[in-house]
Amino acid sequence: MPTRPSTPAHPAADPARPIASRPHRTPARLVALGGLGVAVTTALEVLTAPYSPAVRAYPVNGAVHTAKVIAVVAFVAGVLMLAARLREPLGRLGSAAMAVVGLATVGGAVPYSLVEAFLDPSLPPAEADQRLEAIYAEQTWIAGVSTVALPLVLVGLVTLAVVALRRRLVPAWAPIASLVALPVAVLAGIAGEAGLPIPHPPAWLFLGLSAYGIALLRTPTAIGARSPVPA
């Protein structure tokens, strides 16, 4: 009497399965939590940064910037993982834009935050501000890297949003949120220059970028399941 071949309860994963079809929950969490973390810690600088006109809690500024570095690492790790896993549906342009956003974030955020993280928290805010100015005057490369990094983040952000909208890779509200963050950041920068206690522009940019991670967590198979639109 012939017997039916048994089927394993847990079949082995197919090693040939393309990486773009694997779950995106882990990198999506990193992008969402990391982006929100950068946004929140940047917003807190209104109260903690020694150069802020509304500084009230400078002694915890170092802790805020330490948390910001951790958030940046999480965000960048998630972005680079998605850029690698979604290379095919994103296309070369979209994947490169995502990688540029991640790598430029490191150059733009980490050096400044590390300097402030190790600044003496017992200094009066005015003296701490002078100390920062002296460090930046000595370490001119920090401002130089940031000057290059910010435009790269902006170009990558816009390019990624256009690709995501055109290829319908995630719900449209995510790339739209990242684009809306741009004019909001510009207005925040103008308000900050006028002396108003408004969170710095990066807070709004990364709030918008975190939308990609949130969108993927809500629809974790959206990218892998949809057919890309030809470039």
UniProtKB/TrEMBL annotation:
Keywords on record: Membrane, Transmembrane, Transmembrane helix
Transmembrane helix as UniProt keyword: yes
Ranges for region Disordered: 1-22
Membrane-spanning parts: 30-51, 63-84, 96-115, 141-165, 172-191, 203-225
Annotated protein name in UniProt: MYXO-CTERM domain-containing protein
